[in-house]
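Subject: for your reference before the review

Hello V.,

The reviewers asked for a structural picture of the protein, and I figured it would be easier to keep everything in one thread rather than splitting it across files. Below is the amino acid sequence we used in the manuscript, unchanged from the supplementary table.
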Amino acid sequence: MNNKTFLNAPELHIVIVAFSLHFVWELIQTPLYECFRDMHYYTVVLLIIRASLGDVLISLAAFWSASVAVRSRFWILDKGKKGLWVFLGMGMLITVVFEELATGPLNLWEYTNAMPILPILGTGLAPVAQWIILPLLQLWFVRRQLLGGSISGY
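And here is what came back from the structure prediction:
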C-alpha cells in the first residue's frame, strides 16, 4: 500500500476523527460517572484515552459492518442511506450492550445521580446521545476529508 492509498483510506480518517470527537465527549461526561470522583487527574486522563480508543474500535466495527452491508469501503461518499443506518445501528447496539454489561454484571463503572437513565434500555442518556451525535459529526468530517475538503454535491 503506497502513501496515497493509505492517506485516502476511510479507516484512517475514521480513527483520527473518532478519537478526537470521543475524547472531548468522554472528558465532558466524566461528572456523570462515579469512578472519576476521587481520582487523580492523570489517572482520569488515562482512562479517558482508553475509553476513546474503545470508541474508535466501536466506530471501526460499525464502519466495517456498513461496508459489508453496502459492499464498499467508500459508502460514506454515496448518497444512499443504507450505510449510514447500518453504521448508526451497529454503533448504538454495541454501545447499549457494552453499557449494560459494564454497569451490570461486569461492574466496571456506575452512573452518578446526575446521569439521566433511559427507561426502556436502562442505559445512561449520555452514552446513547454520544452514539447519535458523534457518529453523524464523524461521518461529515470523514466525508469532507475524503472529498478533499469539499462538501459540494451532497
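For the response letter, the relevant points are probably these. The chain has one domain: 3-146. The first helix runs from residue 3 to 7.

Happy to draft the paragraph if you're swamped.

O.
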